[in-house]
């Protein structure tokens, strides 16, 4: 079986690598180790490393556009312009040269969903992994202005949740967003989600249940067989990792910091994550929270780091805090931390409770209540013995649920069912 993975960015070839890209990478490695022929089609590299999986670069319009226009082209694609002539024709040529049995699409908004048409025309079966809810919501969070789960999906009303600039332009693109994306989704033979909760979200949108496949993420195979540490290297370190945007929820953790420091004055937070486009206002909000709380010296921002360095940060932390603000299915960081026996404090949203039992193999907190995050973090930092035992159970849970053989078999069954 030959599988071509399509992704905006790929580890080893790009600087911009997050959880979705790591998930694509690990899925490809798992398939290759099972004897499949694997190839990754991605945008033109900006790193010189040699990737572990063969990659083919696809050009996109932004490569040739003036620098000042690129982010606006990306924004237009993000909203609804899902056709890139350069990527489309390059991918069509690739499929003629290297036919595929299955084309597995991951986050590919900038290559665009038009590549689905090329794959279908070439006779390949297609599956699309859903890591967030961009397909149904331009903010990807599926939350309304009151931060409740949104059942309206996308339309011109989405401007209520979007930045208050270029409103007329936003409305024009939003007017045909659903029609455009629905047309491409109809070309998918299957949809891959990470939790039963996400299955219900897609079914509620109208996607046939027979097309939805639940397969959890793989374990972090590149971390190796790391044993649970008997004591944490830094008893006061909390770790956050994620892009600096609202949906990752760093603001909620920063709001909790004064309460945490009141009980644990030596506590400190390491925030690993890079800035995002159009994220300047959010970063200002973070800075204002820190300034108002007077705890700047207790927070360290590392900026974006390559995935290979994350193991060290997780090992050093006493608790990993994941304050997701949207209906996330299962954060990659949660799986990484649990596999290393680390106690986690995670938002009680989406598919996360399918992995975490409160105070059994982790802590669950109200995503909208910083006091809840503070109480959970204090509990972990104040009781290392309990934290160690909860971490052990977290490791047992995730190693059973996301075992390589199990995930590999489920992935193979998904492909064959197409």
Radius of gyration: 21 Å
Mean pLDDT: 93
Q: List the strand order in the largest sheet.
A: 3-2-1-4-5-6-7
| Number of discrete helical segments | 14
Strand content: 5-15%
Uncertain segments:
none
What profile does the largest beta sheet have? 7 strands, parallel
Distance between the termini: 13 Å
CATH fold annotation of the largest domain = Rossmann fold
Number of domains: 2
General form: globular
- Helix fraction by DSSP (H/I, runs of at least 4): 25-40%
> What is the CATH architecture assignment of the largest domain?
3-Layer(aba) Sandwich
Instruction: Note the run of SSEs as H and E.
Output: EHEEHHEHEHHEHEEHEHEHEHEEHHH
The strand count comes to 13
Class computed from helices, strands and strand pairing: alpha/beta
CATH class type of the largest domain: Alpha Beta
The CATH superfamily of the largest domain appears as Glycogen Phosphorylase B
What does this protein structure show overall?
The strands form 2 sheets. Strands 3-2-1-4-5-6-7 form a 7-stranded parallel β-sheet, sandwiched between helices. Helix 8 (250-263) crosses helix 12 and helix 11 crosses helix 13. By secondary structure, it is of the alpha/beta class. It folds into 2 domains: 2-218 and 404-417, Rossmann fold, CATH 3.40.50.2000; 221-401, Glycogen Phosphorylase B (Rossmann fold, 3-Layer(aba) Sandwich). The protein is globular, with a radius of gyration of 21 Å. Helix 7 (196-205) links the parallel strand 6 and strand 7. The protein is built from 14 helices and 13 strands. Helices cover 39% and strands 14% of the residues.
């Amino acid at each position: 079986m030959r599988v071509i993975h399509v992704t905006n960015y790929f580890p080893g070839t790009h600087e911009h690598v997050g959880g979705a890209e790591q998930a694509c990478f690990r899925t490809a490695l798992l398939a290759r180790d099972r004897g499949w022929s694997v190839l990754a089609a991605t945008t033109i590299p900006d790193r010189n490393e040699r990737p572990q999986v063969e990659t083919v670069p696809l050009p996109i319009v932004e490569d040739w556009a003036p620098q000042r226009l690129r982010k606006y082209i990306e924004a237009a694609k993000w909203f609804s312009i899902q056709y890139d002539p350069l990527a489309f024709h390059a991918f069509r040529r690739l499929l003629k040269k290297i036919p595929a049995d299955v084309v597995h699409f991951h986050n590919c908004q900038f290559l665009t969903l038009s590549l689905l048409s090329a794959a279908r025309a070439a006779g390949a079966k297609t599956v699309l992994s859903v890591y967030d809810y961009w397909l149904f919501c331009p903010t990807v969070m599926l939350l309304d202005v009151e931060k409740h789960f949104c059942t309206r999906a996308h339309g011109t009303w989405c401007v209520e949740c979007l930045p208050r600039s270029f409103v007329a332009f936003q409305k024009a693109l939003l007017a045909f967003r659903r029609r455009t994306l629905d047309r491409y989704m109809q070309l998918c033979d299957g949809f891959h989600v990470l939790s039963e909760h996400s299955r219900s979200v897609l079914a509620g949108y109208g996607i046939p249940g027979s097309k939805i496949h639940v397969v959890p993420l793989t374990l972090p195979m590149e971390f190796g067989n790391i044993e649970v540490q008997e004591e944490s290297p830094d008893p006061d370190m909390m770790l956050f990792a994620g892009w600096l945007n609202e949906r990752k929820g760093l603001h909620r953790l920063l709001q909790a910091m004064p309460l945490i420091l009141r009980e644990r004055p030596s506590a400190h937070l390491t925030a690993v994550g890079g800035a995002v486009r159009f994220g300047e206002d959010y970063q200002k909000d973070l800075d204002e929270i820190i300034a108002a709380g007077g705890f700047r010296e207790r927070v360290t921002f590392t900026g974006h780091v390559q995935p290979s360095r994350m193991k060290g940060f997780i090992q050093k932390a006493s608790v990993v805090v994941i304050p997701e603000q949207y209906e996330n299915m299962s954060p990659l960081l949660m799986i990484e931390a649990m596999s290393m026996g680390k106690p986690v404090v995670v938002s009680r949203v989406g598919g996360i409770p399918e992995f975490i039992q409160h105070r059994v193999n982790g802590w669950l907190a109200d995503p909208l209540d910083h006091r809840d995050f503070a109480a959970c973090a204090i509990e972990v930092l104040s009781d290392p013995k309990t934290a160690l035992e909860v971490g052990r159970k977290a490791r047992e849970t995730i190693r059973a649920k996301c075992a390589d053989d199990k995930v590999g078999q489920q992935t193979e069954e998904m492909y064959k069912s197409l």
